[in-house]
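Re: that chain you flagged

S.,

Sorry for the slow reply, it's been a week of failed gels. I finally had a moment to sit down with the sequence you sent. For the record, here it is as I used it:
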Amino acid sequence: MPAFTLWTEQQVLLAVVRGGWNERTALDYADAFKQAAKPLLGQPWAHIVYLDDWQLGVPEIEPIVRGLVSWCLDNGLRHAAHVYSPNMVKQYQLNKMISDTIVLGPNEQFEKRVYHSDHDAFAWLNQLGFATDSLNFQKKIA
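Prediction finished late last night. Pasting the structure tokens below so you have them in one place:
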């Protein structure tokens, strides 16, 4: 299986990530992510990522992911949902790379939430006005 799968639905970029990541994988992901996000640019958008099959990454991925997050915020990302079963080590590495809330301006902020259920994550984005055709990741992780 590939290390990641990316696709868009309406104003949402969806991702499934897998395996242990090295610097090359993170660079490939950042490039593919920016390409996949192109149709979303110019207006606010959201991101949802399934992380249960991700097995962490080497420390060298962290500045790459932080750079991607900065690019996303500069290009309209306003909400992100991370979906994974409770895992303190995974949470620790993700929190080193991605803040929960970032104030972008007087009336703008980025918010990230963590969910254990993809259904709850999709429902949160839908509630914020970021509906998708998918309601879960079942077809992409099976």
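What I noticed first: The longest helix spans residues 23-37.

Talk soon,
D.
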